[in-house]
Each structure stands twice: as structure tokens, then as C-alpha cells.
Specification:
Helix 1 packs antiparallel against helix 2, helix 3 packs antiparallel against helix 5 and helix 4 crosses helix 5. The protein folds into two domains: 48 residues; 108 residues, no CATH class. The two termini are 19 Å apart. 18% of the residues are buried. The chain is mainly α. Helices cover 61% and strands 12% of the residues. Strands 1-3-2 form a three-stranded antiparallel beta sheet, covered by helices on one side. It has five helices and three strands.
Length: 161
């Protein structure tokens, strides 16, 4: 079932990117999706029933708006720190406990953190993610965990778990 789901997702993605319904495009997209499915199908998500739950897509749309908002805020924060004459930075690496179980959710969290200016996900070890942060505003793990990953984790949990 996961091979069929992966093929459908890849083929629809191809159609979305090319935005053409010509016979040649359909054949190339089908063959490309088939080859990719044959090579990478075993690495795809095992429980594909999650793909057919519409509530997850609603949470994904909400997450995208939250992510864009957090990126905008972080961009202004980093710009302020760069333009400020004193350059108020206090960089360091923080260790944040993860509340996500699946690897795909953890990967999305790490990518979201890295794509947000001022933070970079360095590593995930066991149930912790290590994040380089441009300004560590607190030494309390509860506070900096909420600031760095808490804004994304609750939505990723609803999408992927």
C-alpha cells in the first residue's frame, strides 16, 4: 500500500510542478514516479493511512501560516541584532527535549528550526535536539524549549502523529 501511495504522491507532485496535462508529460511523470517509487518505496512511511486523514491537511495549512509568521518575526529580530550598534547577541547551543515520536516529525521540526533565522538545528540525539541559537535569552530549559521548538511541536504532533 505504501508503494501505491508514494507513486500517487510523486505523480501528483510532478503534475503540480509541470502544470501540463499533455500525453508526453503524463508519460514522463508516470515513469519518473514509478522509478522513484521502486528505488525509494521501502523508505517511505509505513502507516500510509495517515495520508488519507483530511484533518492532518488542515493542521498542515495552519502550521504553514504559523511557520511563515515565526520566520517573519525571526527575520526582524535578526535584522535588529545586525543593525544595532552594540550587536546584542549571546550565541550558544541549547538542548531541547523532544515530545515528538516519529522520525518524520522530528525531521520537520529540525528543518523548521533551521529555516527560521537565528536558529540552526545541530543534531538530534535520542529524545533531544541540539540547537544553535543567536540569542539565548534564558538558561531555564522550560523557557527556551518553549521559545525555540514549542511553537512548532504541537502542530507537527497533530500532523504526523
Amino acid at each position: 500500500m505504501r508503494y501505491i501511495t508514494l507513486f500517487i504522491i510523486l505523480f501528483l507532485f510532478w503534475l503540480l510542478i509541470t502544470f501540463q496535462l499533455t500525453p508526453a508529460n503524463l508519460i514522463v511523470g508516470g515513469v519518473s514516479a514509478l522509478i522513484a517509487t521502486l528505488f525509494f518505496g521501502r523508505y517511505f512511511v509505513e502507516n500510509v493511512r495517515k495520508f488519507f486523514q483530511p484533518a492532518r491537511y488542515l493542521w498542515l495549512i495552519i502550521y504553514l501560516f504559523i511557520f511563515i509568521w515565526e520566520c517573519l518575526k525571526a527575520n526582524f529580530d535578526v535584522a535588529y541584532r545586525v543593525i544595532h550598534p552594540a550587536m546584542p547577541i549571546k550565541p550558544g547551543i541549547v538542548k531541547v527535549r523532544l515530545n515528538l515520536e516519529t522520525q518524520i516529525a522530528r525531521t520537520f521540526l529540525a528543518m523548521s528550526i533551521t529555516m527560521t533565522p537565528g536558529t540552526i538545528a545541530v543534531d538530534i540525539i535520542d529524545d533531544y535536539i541540539y540547537i544553535h541559537w543567536i540569542y539565548i535569552s534564558s538558561t531555564d530549559p522550560e523557557i527556551y524549549s518553549r521559545k525555540v521548538s514549542g511553537r512548532f511541536e504541537k502542530y507537527l504532533k497533530k500532523i504526523f502523529e
